Amino acid sequence: MSELAPPVAALIEEFSKLPGIGIKTAQRLTFYVLRSPADQARRLAEAILRVKESIIYCSRCFNITEHDPCSICQDPQRDRQLVCVVEEPLDVLALERTGAYKGLYHVLHGALSPLEGIGPDNLRIKELLERVRHEEIHEIVLATNPNFEGEYTANYLVSRLRELKSELAPRQLKITSLARGLPIGGDLEYADEGTLRRSIEGRLDLGA
Amino acid sequence: MHLVHLALTDFRNYRQLDLSLGPGLFLFCGENAQGKTNLLEAVSMIATSTSFHASADREVVNWYAPDHLARLDARIRRRDGELHVEIVIFDPTPPLLGSGEQATRPPHWPGGTQRKRIKINEVPRRALDLIGSMTNVLFAPADLHLVDGSPDERRRFIDRSLCQVRPRYCQALQQYRKIIMQRAALLKRIRDYHEDPRLLDYLDERLTLLATMIMFERERMLSALNELAAPFQEQLSGGREQLQIVYRPSFQPHPQHSLTEAQEHYLRQLHTVRQKEIQQGVCLLGPHRDDLEFLVNGMSVITYGSRGQQRTVALATKFAELAYMRAATGDEPVLLLDDVFSELDQRRREQLLQAILDHEQVLLTTTDASHFPPEVLERAYKFQVVNGQLHPW
């Protein structure tokens, strides 16, 4: 890349550091920026800067936000007795899109994985326990991912929350998790064994 | 069952291979490093979707493959019909060949390109679905050291056939290995960074649950294997020797062999070694530490047996494995023999040859065709392997 002007080479290098972007894509993006109007390039640069300068973590739920506390934590319509625990800010977005959840959130920013060196101290677990101690929370909904790391994290949280229960009396604390089962619009025969087993275990009483 | 056709593209040193097969004995003869084992590796990959000696799938992709893909395409004739299996393996980190200006840059592949794609009868499937489509028994020089080799070798022996016969076992074993890796990392973190030991509880529960399943299947397979191996040993030793294969699990088995209480029983054992595990930073108990012991006439072969006796026992055990696979699936597995004849003496060579000659399909590699009597050579399909190409002779 010795013939390339240094600014071009620098941008290619920066792009290629992004996740999922190899050297070829980085080159393509760089030349796209080079050919686009100056105005558009400025908007891109500003958007990148703004995201770093103005986005902070909410001091209560640790979701990403522009204002602390975040709009969900401030919303008076929300059920403050209900807190849903998720791994990532994108999970909040997914749950919000359903419109079915009216409580608050708590974002852990990851899941336990000893192999990757992620222990409880690397996640917002201490902060969650503090919230349960000091806020009028009556139910914790665990919504970690249904994979090994997610289940591991949920399991650890259950044991820590259980210890807390005696401290909270007479306040009751209910611990729930999202149901595991069949996707809507799916076909029973295409479901894998693990999912099917979980949905048999968690079958619904139709009250007939 | 047998392979009818095998086609390879950029698989190891085979840039392009198109091989028609059928029932019978196929002899692949060649110098070292010409691609004899690679051929058996490909066949084995059709059966299990993973390589028997590469540490990562991508290793099988030829370095000069223009698109960094290796393709395997096989037609298998089973008792219940024909099967078409296709596997495509993608190497996301191909080596840069040449240097400076001449360096060939990898072509662009979208992020998230699957590392391995499998189709069975033109329908995309998971690796787990492939298992059992074609069973095979591999006999490599390492198998001759089944008795005197490392425990790891003996576990690989059990796992290789059990995985092919029971996909559920394969799944449990994969999950178990992941737990062991996470758990070992956690033990070290507890020791070095004083991480919360309660983090072990969930892993212990998963470990023992999976261990219960794995040990149960191993126990069952070994009792079947025992019955099958005894007559082979008698025959190979001229009726003088009684062989017994004993399963030595690392967990103390439950006295009543109760499946429901077994997990509790293992959990208690884990608790007693917890401090020791943390000190050493390794998982000390579980199926990853199981072993087998071979007894001839009640005496341990590894302690009291001669080298020749150890070979005979290994041979009898492999014959039993073949019979086990046949009994468990109701079909003949494809038999792969990788250069084992050079390691055997004349008598055992003849015994082995006798045992395989009438098998449905045998793929055999050797550096020296002179090991084989003319009547065997006459009925075999013979190929010379030279630098990733096959030449019939």
UniProtKB/TrEMBL annotation, chain A:
MF terms (GO), sorted A to Z:
DNA binding; zinc ion binding
Give every Toprim domain span: 81-183
Zn finger residue spans: C4-type: 58-73
Say which domain of life the source belongs to.
Bacteria
Question: What UniProt keywords apply to this chain's record, in alphabetical order?
Answer: DNA damage, DNA recombination, DNA repair, Metal-binding, Zinc, Zinc-finger
GO BP term, pick one = DNA recombination
Name the InterPro entries on file: DNA_Rcmb_RecR, Rcmb_RecR, Rcmb_RecR_Znf, TOPRIM_dom, TOPRIM_RecR
The UniProt entry, under SMART domains, shows: TOPRIM
Q: Mind telling me which HAMAP family this protein's record contains? A: RecR
Report the protein's function.
May play a role in DNA repair. It seems to be involved in an RecBC-independent recombinational process of DNA repair. It may act with RecF and RecO.
What family classification does the UniProt entry report for this protein?
Belongs to the RecR family.
Q: What is the name of the protein in this document?
A: Recombination protein RecR
Origin organism is: Thermogemmatispora aurantia
From TrEMBL, chain B:
GO cellular-component terms in the record? Answer: cytoplasm
| Gene Ontology BP term (one) | DNA replication
Q: Where is it predominantly found?
A: cytoplasm
Keywords, comma-separated and alphabetical: ATP-binding, Cytoplasm, DNA damage, DNA repair, DNA replication, DNA-binding, Nucleotide-binding, SOS response
The UniProt GO MF terms for this protein read: ATP binding; ATP hydrolysis activity; single-stranded DNA binding
Q: Which residues form the Rad50/SbcC-type AAA domain?
A: 6-194
Residues that bind ATP, according to the entry? G30, E31, N32, A33, Q34, G35, K36, T37
Q: Where in the cell is it found?
A: Cytoplasm
Keyword Transmembrane on this protein?
Answer: no
Q: Which domain of life is it from?
A: Bacteria
Q: Pfam families from the entry?
A: AAA_23 (PF13476)
Q: Which SUPFAM superfamilies match?
A: P-loop containing nucleoside triphosphate hydrolases
- Biological function: The RecF protein is involved in DNA metabolism; it is required for DNA replication and normal SOS inducibility. RecF binds preferentially to single-stranded, linear DNA. It also seems to bind ATP.
What NCBIfam families is this protein classified in? recf (TIGR00611)
What family does this chain come from, according to its entry?
A: Belongs to the RecF family.
This one is known as: DNA replication and repair protein RecF
Q: Which organism is it from?
A: Thermogemmatispora aurantia
Q: Which lineage ranks, top first, belong to the organism behind this chain?
A: Bacteria, Bacillati, Chloroflexota, Ktedonobacteria, Thermogemmatisporales
